[in-house]
Every structure is written in C-alpha cells, then in structure tokens.
Design goal:
alpha+beta, SH3 type barrels, 2 domains, about 15% helix, about 40% strand
C-alpha cells in the first residue's frame, strides 16, 4: 500500500472547519480510514490585548486552507475534491503536490520517526545540567536545563527573573554547558 502524505486543500474563506467536518464524516461513512488518515485546520494561539486584559485565542494559521494526511488515489482525490467548500488541491494545474518534511515541520505537525528529518546538532547536555546563554536577550544568563527537544533543536532552561524561576526556550547553538 502507498504511504500517506500531507496535502494542502484550498477552501472558501471561513469554510475550513465545515470542510474538515464534511471530509471526516465522508471518510467515516465510506470507510476510507485507510486512505484518508487525518484532516486538520492548523491553529496558533494568539494573545489579544483589549480593554486592559490579555486573552489567549486560537487563530487559523492558514485561512482558506485545510491540511489532509492521505494516500493519494482516485477515490480519495474524488472525495476531497468534491467536498462542498473545497476549491481544489494546492499544486500546479490539477495535480496535488505533497508537502515536504521541512514544510510539515514548519507548520508544527508531528512526523513519525521514519519521516522526521535527523537533528542537525547533537546536544551533549542532559536535564539538570547548568548552562550559560551565549546570545540574544538572555546573553550571559545562567540556568538549569528542564527539557531537551531534539526535533526543535532547542532546550528549555529555568532562569531566575524577578525572584522567580522562568522557563526560557533557547536553541542548541546559543547555550554552553558550564
């Protein structure tokens, strides 16, 4: 069986959630779970400030687009393409083009280990080690590693700010083990 890839589908603006729901319903009704694995509307959390209060709210990262992880076949293409609100797949002409692993990572979609690009930098530290930040706003600040994220090439360290420990995310190349 072919492997599933991520595709981008263009929709009418404001119809992203409706398209997602309709495709998921069709997949369930036609038992296409083996061909269409996941449908998503990428969201990001945005802090809105209004009337002196801060409020975190989800916002669509790509208005007018829906991401679909599917095995491309005539049947899966037909189901997606003929969903109300879908104007077409993103790609030249009518040929859908799958996203590259780099594009998928940029959108924050977790990849299975087999597809994930290998880390560019191997970090020698471990949780609990003390590090010094080498650049940026936190330059020369010393902190303790609380977590390491190889896929994002960063560490989260706890630094003291205003008398409290605060987690700060820093890239591997911007820290030095003490």
């Amino acid at each position: 069986m072919d492997e599933a890839k991520w595709y981008v589908v263009h929709t009418y603006s404001g119809y992203e959630n409706k398209v997602k729901a309709d495709i998921e319903k069709t997949v369930e009704n036609r038992n296409l779970q083996e061909q269409i694995h996941k449908v998503m509307v990428p969201l990001e959390t945005v802090v809105e400030v209004g009337k002196g209060t801060k409020k975190a709210a989800p916002k669509k990262m790509l208005p007018g687009y829906v991401l679909i992880n599917m095995v491309m076949s005539d049947e899966s293409w037909f189901v997606v393409r003929n969903t109300r609100g879908v104007t077409g797949f993103v790609g030249p002409g009518s040929k859908p083009v799958p996203l590259t692993p780099t594009e998928i990572k940029a959108l924050g979609i977790a990849l299975p280990e087999a597809e994930a690009p290998k880390p560019l930098v191997q970090f020698a530290g471990k949780v609990g080690d003390t590090v010094m930040i080498l650049s940026g706003a936190w330059e020369d600040t010393i902190g303790v590693i609380s977590s390491i994220n190889d896929s994002k090439q960063c560490v989260v360290i706890n630094v003291e700010m205003f008398g409290r420990e605060t987690p700060v995310e820093i890239g591997f190349t911007d820290v030095k083990l003490m």
